[in-house]
């Protein structure tokens, strides 16, 4: 097993959890290689080398950003991905059923978990068609993209509250955007506040924006929020954490195997990481990655 540590995720806590987990695995007779990079490029190179060397399991100690980095290398390979959630959002771990607040229980999944194959999303812009990007959670555009950018500029508060604070700020600047969306060959043009494309259900620290997503059905789940007043969206905001917003009159959901999204002068984000400028095409890739989940979990569904 290879344990990928990210000291930047969760501060000192991440390094401590990685070290404790390594000792726990060694005590149970598991051969462990601990690797880390000084930056994203070096870290990805280390992951690539581990996968090429035939690592059976890559365990990532970090948040959704580290998981996203690892997915670029383990997708489509025989290396299984495990997650020790130490980040602020931990949405990929959440849909796998991995506890973020109990490091020892998360480590036990490395010892006694079961392997499941799940879908991933794969996206590319016209400028980067030869360099597709894998994503495990949600691809965001429109209002969501603006919130992610705002969140990255903020230093306080921490965790999911920082995302919520960014939402409040951007609601005051809300404007309708002209979207063109092509889903499985059918094209629509409409105004919307956001279009979210989910392989799994949640992002932003537990916001279940695509509660109809199932990473084992070979489809992407799309949520469209029509433009409305800031007040109406503010009142609907808490329901996103529960996943009950889909009954709101401003919200429309559907599934598609392939989706192309465009609105002018907008960037998209996948797993909270930059995916490039729109237009962007995303597709579901069935059984693209093997993951470790708690024993008894039939599927990894958010």
Task: Explain what this protein looks like in three dimensions.
The chain is α+β, with helices and mostly antiparallel strands. It has 2 domains: 2-112, Rossmann fold (3-Layer(aba) Sandwich); 122-287, Tumour Suppressor Smad4, CATH 2.60.200.40. The chain has 8 helices and 16 strands. A 6-stranded antiparallel β-sheet has the order 6-5-16-13-8-9. α3 (64-74) links the parallel β3 and β4 (80-85). α1 packs parallel to α5 and α2 (40-52) crosses α3. The protein is globular and about 55 Å long. The two termini are 26 Å apart. 48% of the residues are buried. The mean pLDDT is 88. It holds the Pfam family YegS_C. Its cofactor is Mg(2+). Residues 1-127 form the DAGKc domain. This is DAGKc domain-containing protein. Keywords: ATP-binding, Kinase, Lipid biosynthesis, Lipid metabolism, Magnesium, Metal-binding, Nucleotide-binding, Phospholipid biosynthesis, Phospholipid metabolism, Transferase.
Quick description:
With 302 residues, the protein is α+β, with helices and mostly antiparallel strands. The chain contains eight helices and 16 strands. It has two domains: 2-112, Rossmann fold; 122-287, Tumour Suppressor Smad4 (Sandwich).
């Amino acid at each position: 097993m290879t344990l990928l540590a990210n000291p930047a995720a969760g501060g000192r806590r991440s390094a401590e959890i990685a070290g404790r987990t390594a000792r726990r695995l060694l005590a149970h007779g598991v051969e462990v290689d601990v690797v880390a990079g000084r930056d994203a490029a070096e870290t990805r190179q280390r992951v690539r080398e581990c996968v090429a060397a035939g690592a059976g399991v890559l365990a990532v100690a970090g948040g959704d950003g580290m998981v996203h980095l690892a997915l670029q290398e383990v997708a489509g390979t025989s290396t299984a991905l495990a997650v020790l959630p130490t980040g602020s959002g931990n949405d990929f771990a959440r849909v796998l059923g991995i506890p973020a607040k109990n490091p020892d229980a998360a480590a036990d999944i490395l010892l006694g978990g079961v392997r499941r194959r799940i879908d991933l999303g794969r996206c590319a812009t016209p400028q980067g068609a030869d360099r597709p990007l894998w994503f495990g959670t949600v691809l965001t555009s429109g209002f969501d993209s603006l919130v992610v950018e705002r969140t990255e500029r903020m230093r306080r508060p921490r965790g999911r509250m920082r995302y919520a604070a960014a939402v409040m700020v951007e609601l005051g600047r809300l404007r309708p955007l002209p979207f063109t969306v092509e889903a499985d060959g059918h094209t629509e043009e409409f105004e919307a506040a956001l279009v979210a494309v989910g392989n799994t259900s949640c992002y932003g620290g537990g916001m279940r924006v695509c509660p109809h997503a199932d990473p084992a059905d070979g489809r992407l789940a799309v949520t469209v929020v029509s433009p409305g007043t800031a007040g109406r969206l503010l009142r609907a905001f808490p329901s996103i954490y529960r996943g009950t917003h889909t009954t709101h009159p401003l919200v429309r959901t559907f599934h598609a195997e392939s989706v192309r999204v465009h609105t002018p002068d907008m960037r998209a984000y996948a797993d909270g990481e930059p995916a490039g400028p729109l237009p962007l095409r995303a597709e579901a890739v069935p059984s693209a990655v093997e993951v470790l989940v708690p024993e008894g979990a039939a599927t990894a569904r958010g």
